[in-house]
Amino acid sequence: MEFSQTRVLVTGASSGIGRATAVRLAKEREITLILSGRDEARLRETWTLCGERAEDVLWPRELDNAWAAGEALQEFLQARQLSVQAFVHCAGMAPLLPLRLADAETAHRIMEVNFFSAAALLETLISRHVNRKELTRVVLISSVQSQIGAKGQGFYCASKAALEGFLRAMAEELGPRVRVNAIRPGAVPSRMADELTARADLLTKDVAEGYTLGLGMPEDIASMVAFLLSEEARWITGQCFTVDGGRMAH
Ligand SMILES: NC(=O)c1ccc[n+]([C@@H]2O[C@H](COP(=O)([O-])OP(=O)(O)OC[C@H]3O[C@@H](n4cnc5c(N)ncnc54)[C@H](OP(=O)(O)O)[C@@H]3O)[C@@H](O)[C@H]2O)c1
User: Fold this and answer.
1) DSSP assignment of 171-214, as one string?
2) Does residue 248 form part of some domain?
3) What CATH number has the domain bearing residue 196?
4) Which ligand 1 atom lies nearest to the CA of residue 190?
5) According to DSSP H, which parts of the chain are helical?
6) Is the residue at 249 inside a domain?
7) Is residue 21 within 8 Å of 88, Cβ to Cβ?
8) Is 17 touching ligand 1 by the criterion CB < 6 Å?
9) Does 156 participate in catalysis according to the annotation?
10) Would 16 disulfide with which of 82, 148, 190, 236, CB 3.0-4.6 Å?
11) Which of 157, 155, 221, 156 is nearest to 187 (CA)?
């Protein structure tokens, strides 16, 4: 694939799809990375898996206060004199939260991490004062659960539906300079997926059932991220691509 010189901020890079994305992107010599996640030890593991490249940097950060995170990103970039050309938002949380047990704090936290942090970090990255006009590509990681319900996942499903509405508006608002797309993964193994399948009694059906191609791997999502960031995707914006082994086809 063809890439221009790009520094990519990847949230959720300490695990699962975000980690696989970082490892995939690190194969491209034109790409350098800002790896973000909460757990610094896990972020370092990702950096090692990426080949311990000196040009890649870590940004350990909690995202449950989205606008505080946006300000922290500004300070981080300015202190290191870094600019960012692409943003991949993989950070997410999906605690089981049936409505009858829902509390405001957890419900807000899901929205902050899954949706508002994408908006707040993007706001920083389009700031001329912080990032000049360097940002050109955004990929947001949604979920097939923006389209299909699951017991105990009301707030998660809503957060992903919000992300998808947001992406279409941003494609209009930030185009033509910035291309904004999203990916809707089906189930792939990760810490999040493990936590959910361990409580399969609360899911609508057995997770693997219904995947024509079987369950995928985080690398299957990472390939699509790489494509959307590449020059080959230069005429694609405002779209959400389902990558789910056939789950949504029936
Ligand atoms: N796996 C699936 O089947 C699947 C399907 C559809 C969509 N997705 C989406 O894919 C994305 C990645 O999920 P995953 O499956 O790779 O799960 P994962 O392995 O649990 O990774 C989640 C990532 O989000 C970060 N994160 C969680 N809460 C955070 C917070 N409060 N502040 C900052 N970072 C936080 C984690 O950081 P720490 O490691 O530091 O905790 C981790 O890097 C999510 O948006 C998820 O909704 C996953």
Assistant:
1) HHHHTTTSEEEEEEE----SHHHHHHHTTGGGSSS-SSTT-TT-
2) no
3) 3.40.50.720
4) 19
5) 16-25, 40-49, 66-80, 104-111, 117-125, 128-131, 154-174, 191-197, 218-229
6) no
7) yes
8) yes
9) yes
10) 190
11) 221
* CB of 93 shorter than 6 A to ligand 1: yes
How many structural domains is the chain composed of?
1
| Whether pLDDT at 61 is above 80 | yes
Average pLDDT of the chain, as a whole number: 94
Backbone phi, then psi, for 236, in 5-degree steps?
Answer: -120, 120
CA of 12 to the centre of ligand 1 (A): 6
Nearest Cα residue to 92 out of 179, 157, 170: 157
Best probe residue, ligand 1, of 192, 194, 219 (max atoms within 8 Å of C-beta): 192
Residue 206's pLDDT band, with cuts at 50, 70 and 90, is low
Answer whether residue 177 is part of any domain: yes
The tokens describing 2, both together, are 């063809």
**Tens-place pLDDT, residues 121-140:** 999 999 999 999 999 999 99
In the predicted structure, residue 192 carries a pLDDT above the cut 50:
yes
Full domain range(s) for residue 139: 6-242
Distance 190 CA to ligand 1 centre (A): 8
179 in any annotated domain: yes
Nearest-5° Cα angle at 141, 135 to 145: 150
- The 3-state DSSP class for residue 8 equals strand
